[in-house]
Amino acid sequence: ADFDAKKKRKVAEIYQALNSDPIDVAALRRMAISEGGLLTDEIRCKVWPKLLSVNTDDLPPLPGKELREDNKDYQQVLLDVRRSLRRFPPGMPDDQREGLQEELIDIILHVLKRNPQLHYYQGYHDIVVTFLLVVGDRLATALVEKLSTHHLRDFMDPTMDNTKHILSYLMPIIDQVNPEVHDFMQSAEVGTIFALSWLITWFGHVLSDFRHVVRLYDFFLACHPLMPIYFAAVIVLHRQQEVLECECDMASVHHLLSQIPQDLPYESLISKAGDLFVQFPPSELAKEAAQQQAERTAASTFKDFELASVQQRPDTVLRQRFRERLRGEERLRGEERTKSILTKPRTNRFVKLAVMGLTVALGAAALAVVKSALEWAPKFELQIFP
């Protein structure tokens, strides 16, 4: 009864935000982040366009079949879509699924034709099919196009340089929370490739339950485009005991981490990912994350990232000495270390948030995460991307 009451209250708050004039996008972002997300696909059809600044009154016409003629990506898209059977609801009639697969191909080719600067990658269809199943082909086409030219743009470059750059944030986040797990993974030389499919499909390819996929999409659509890498980090940290008990070699650790559990505590992990973003924003991780400048990534459009984009990786020897000195002063392991770091006010920003009473229980320090997203979202209309 309590759950039903909370759900009804949240639905009422979502529709209140939708019906306000102007629409309260900040409230919609908070609803998408907080426990349960947007609750139903009916609500997602109304809210997802608002989160992406898509005008539903001016949708593009459905693409025609001529898109497939002489299209350099058609054969690869066709192969990937044919392999996507498990992304459709079990028990769906074959003719209905085949019809949706045809629509999926057309949406992908339409976006690529209208945006020749974008390059198809394997896994892109896992994101597109999620939108198709939730909102239908016409609205999905508009949402996917906006998403592809913004949040996903770095994955759609001619090379994987920017994707590797985003992956390079994973280890610094883990290092901030649990240096022991970080150092173990470094010793195993496992790298970050195990998280590649998580990142470029927004976990759509690796999670079997569609409810969990759309819950994560609610979260990611409302947040900074680097949020999926923070979520990847909290999955690794959630499994820290398994990691530390694993053989310390690349093959063993890679095999363990690449097999993502299906029974993750999603709401708890979403809250922790939001809290880590607040505690350790991209600006604080940038110098650790990459040697290259971040001028061409979607993340660089955020103010805090821009401030740090010119900083280079510090000398690794000095960094190691600094870390050893810190460990000499305080050695916290395992769960105690994780619990401490998530509650300890490590930065001035986090102290201010604590004073405001924002905690994990309130949904991923939602106000701060929303503020970061809103700083970027208005730029959708400024066409800041080439």
TrEMBL record:
GO biological process: endoplasmic reticulum to Golgi vesicle-mediated transport; Golgi organization; vesicle organization
InterPro entries reported for this sequence: Rab-GAP-TBC_dom, Rab-GAP_TBC_sf, TBC20/Gyp8-like
Subcellular localization(s) per the UniProt record: Membrane
Any one Gene Ontology cellular component term annotated for this protein: endoplasmic reticulum membrane
Keywords in alphabetical order: GTPase activation, Membrane, Transmembrane, Transmembrane helix
Transmembrane regions: 190-207, 219-237, 350-370
UniProt keyword annotation of Protein transport present: no
Major location (coarse): membrane
Topology of the protein relative to the lipid bilayer: Multi-pass membrane protein
GO molecular function, one term: GTPase activator activity
All residue ranges annotated as the Rab-GAP TBC domain in the record: 38-224
SMART domains tied to this protein: TBC
Protein name as it appears in the record: TBC1 domain family member 20
Source species: Serilophus lunatus (silver-breasted broadbill)
Lineage: Eukaryota, Metazoa, Chordata, Craniata, Vertebrata
Name of the encoding gene: Tbc1d20
